[in-house]
Amino acid sequence: MSDKLFWSVRIPRTATREELTALDLEIGGLPPSYRAFAEQYGAGLANGLILIFMPFPCASGTFQSEGRGLTGILNDFVGDWIADGGTPGEQDCLEPYDKQSIGAATRYKDLVFFARSENGETFCWLRTDDRYTFYALDRAFLSLRYGGDDLMTMIGDMQTDKVKAILGTGYAPLLSSFVGSD
Question: Do residues 76 and 127 make contact, with C-beta atoms less than 8 angstroms apart?
């Protein structure tokens, strides 16, 4: 099976409207593109690399447990950095790799983690009023890269050479596949 975003698709379980509404209320807002992804694809491996957290138990873990876990790790990292006299957004602490990422590091407590890669990168969004911006962080939280303003577009961009701007120059375009997990 194929669709507009993925050439190959297998979907065993998607998020229900009720699950997404409960998550929305719990965390204070969901990007429309995350909601659309969760309703259309659900839990699984996107682009052969990215595990997107869902508001239900699945192989990648729940949004609540995995997202909170990554938030705790980031807060500890940045707290130690600040205690050593550093500032978020400097070299080696959420350093912005593009102009769209400048300033996001100072709002690190507002980042909402929704995915991780099999290589250790993490993905989050930042809400400003009614606008959501997506970012990729390297596995050590040293750098912050702009992914776009729409999750579906970011996933599609990682299937092209735009992946180099999102994940780094060592990446080639990712697979156009989604393999759902139960």
Answer: no
